[in-house]
Write a structure and sequence with these properties.
With 253 residues, the chain is α+β, with helices and mostly antiparallel strands. It contains 5 helices and 13 strands. The strands form 2 sheets. It has an 8-stranded mixed sheet with strand order 1-2-3-4-8-7-6-5, sandwiched between helices. A 5-stranded antiparallel sheet has the order 12-11-10-9-13, with no helix packed on it. A hairpin with a 3-residue loop joins β5 and β6. α2 packs across α4 and α2 crosses α5. The longest helix has 20 residues. Bound molecules: biotin. The site of biotin has 20 residues, from α1, β4, β7 and β8.
Amino acid sequence: MSHQFNEENMAGAGAFFLPSLSLRWYSQLDSTNSLALNEPGLPGGTVIAADSQWAGRGRLGRNWLSPQGLNLYFSLVLYPQLPREHWGGFSLAAGVGLAQGLGELDLHPRIKWPNDILWQGIKMAGILLETKEQRLVVGAGVNVNQEEFPLGLHATSIRIATGIAWRRDLLLAVFSREIYRWCMLWEQGLFDQVISAWRQHDSVLGQQVTIHRGEEAIEGTAVDVESSGALVVEDRHAFRHVLHSGEVSFRKN
Ligand code: BTN
């Protein structure tokens, strides 16, 4: 199935036309990110969605459980022209886009660096960016109508938060439009605008955190995010660590 939807972007001082997104929705895939990365010739602005994934990928090498027909699993194809050192910032932009999209449902989620979407401190959605040659794929998994999660998985969904069952196609239109819009703002170099929106949703800056990276754990205060998308953590020796990946956990004083 293939659709087109057009959006006009009115963000910021000036308005500009956002090229149309085109959607391909599959019943089953291994991973929407895999198809979006590997299918030759996919134009920028293509959204690949699936009703289920049998090998959905999460950040840091984890699996992303993707049961049939309950949630959203989708990937947006981009071909950024920005220098590579700024590509990491698309991860902040995508998080802002998804948080803003959820805001349209009157949910006000927080972002945990880089782009975990938390509602009342519990994970509602996650984003995985992957690149191949000139292509950047923004993959998003949003828990929509799932009400029960496997034991040990601390997760929530839009249905749990709102008490309502949602049409996934309508939500996909909103979320992919917002993710695309914020990524295009980043692409245009409007870094301050995106980072300031990210800060408004952020739950990490100013907090005592531990950043886990494999065997390594860095403890300190989260003090800033950079336009590379990196998190800056200041440890107790006032040494600043610039972190490009890792999992944040909050420390109690
Ligand atoms: C995370 O670990 O928080 C990121 C999860 C990203 C999951 C989505 S589902 C659609 C896309 N395809 C994948 O294989 N992963 C992403």
